[in-house]
Amino acid sequence: MSTATDTIVAPATPFGYGGIAVIRLSGPSSKNIARAITFLSGEKKPPFKPRQATHVLIAEKNGKTFDEGLITFFKSPNSYTGEDSFEISCHGNPTIVHKIIDRCCEEGARIAEPGEFTRRSFINGKIDLLQAESVSSLIYSKSYECAALNHRILRGKLSDQIRKIKEKLVGLLTQVEFELDFSEEDLQPKLRKDVLSKMIIIQKTTKNLLNTRKEGRLLTDGAIVVIAGKPNVGKSTLLNSLTETDRAITSPTPGTTRDSIEVPLLLSGVPVRFFDTAGIRRGAADVEREGIRRTKKLTQKADIVLSLYEHNKDNTRKHKATYVQPSIHIINKADLIKPNELQEIKRRFPGFVFVSAKKKTGINDLKSTIKNMLGVSPSLSSAVSLTTARQQIALESVFGYLTAGARLLQNKNCSYELVSFEICSALDSVNSLLGITTPDEIINNIFKSFCVEETL
């Protein structure tokens, strides 16, 4: 990885043909390099005023021009990386982009490693580790809601909440350490009650933040919804109706679907992957049996299983116990049920959803049921959520240490040292979350997930 003395260069836009491309240059030698590869008409060197775009010609080492564009100077520390930086906007031709990067390297720069611009921003204190994680997540967001969430994290909304927890922990530790230094006795009842009360408040705040992880995971990673049931109950037709596609082949012949078919769909900002699967039945041939095995494996990974039945052909109550929870139980081909029988059937099967996949009736109700089970809510558009497993694990550690500390404080004979240890441990986890004391291996893994051009 880089050192602070390196100057790095990389494309900030994906390679390809287009109107413009942007190249980013950052480091202590960036101004000298930019001055070496550009000039104004009449061979004058550009003045490079901070945050001012200047039209320049871009030249080879011998002075021969091969492109022109705009160059913008960002003076340290008021840049993305916190270093002197330049953005070069040139014509969007991969050959030109490669040539400009080559010229920068000839003048002393080197090609940036994945995530290195954001890593420098983190090292130079421009952003913390939570914000750094959000950069890649923002770029790869699959919905507006996910992008908005990660932008809020990039703006520091999640970090603000974590720092408030840290401030309260520091205040609590200060109170306990003061008594540890100046009192010869264990915690007095009044003080112990006060410390316990404050610890429980921090614990509740931490728990509330942990409870946002499901929403953050759904928006960032999406959900898996598997359609399962016997052969020929209409699973493929239901997939096509839900996703408004003709992705799955439908046939009256049982066993047409031998392998799972995946179709993505956005439901209220949540990327959902719907899977049509092989019908489950006994006596299947080898190929179909393998499809059934895969179906059962996929249902174990699913966030929701759509258990599909056909009235009068399925032993519905028996099959209701077949699939793992959470499941939505659906009776298909409801259009074939006589109206005077429908109310009795609904009474017998409370909580079931009735649809006609072929005629597309009941599909909107089913989508609403899926949204409700996923926990999709309007609050997703403005709230801050945990988006990574690392964040969850760190906060779970904080919660665990606080729980241990609260348990100690409930014992009237507890000591300052033990309570102080639990608070210090919780603080360590908070600092790790913000990137203050995070091991290098974890930091490296975070930035390795970036592409070179992920330099927002």
Describe this structure in words.
The strands form 2 sheets. This protein has a 7-stranded mixed beta sheet with strand order 3-4-5-6-2-1-7. Strands 9-10-8-11-12-13 form a 6-stranded mixed beta sheet, sandwiched between helices. The chain has helices at 30-37, 94-106, 116-123, 129-139, 144-154, 157-182, 189-210, 213-221, 235-243, 286-301, 316-320, 339-348, 363-374, 389-409, 416-434, 440-448; strands at 8-11, 18-26, 38-39, 53-59, 65-74, 85-92, 110-111, 223-229, 261-267, 270-276, 304-310, 327-332, 353-354. The protein contains 16 helices and 13 strands. It folds into 3 domains: 8-127, Probable tRNA modification gtpase trme, domain 1 (Gyrase A, domain 2); 135-212 and 385-435, Four Helix Bundle (Hemerythrin (Met), subunit A) (Up-down Bundle); 224-379, 3-Layer(aba) Sandwich (Rossmann fold). Helices cover 46% and strands 17% of the residues. Helix 7 (189-210) runs antiparallel to helix 14. It is flat. By secondary structure, the chain is an alpha/beta fold. Residues 281-285 have low confidence and may be disordered.
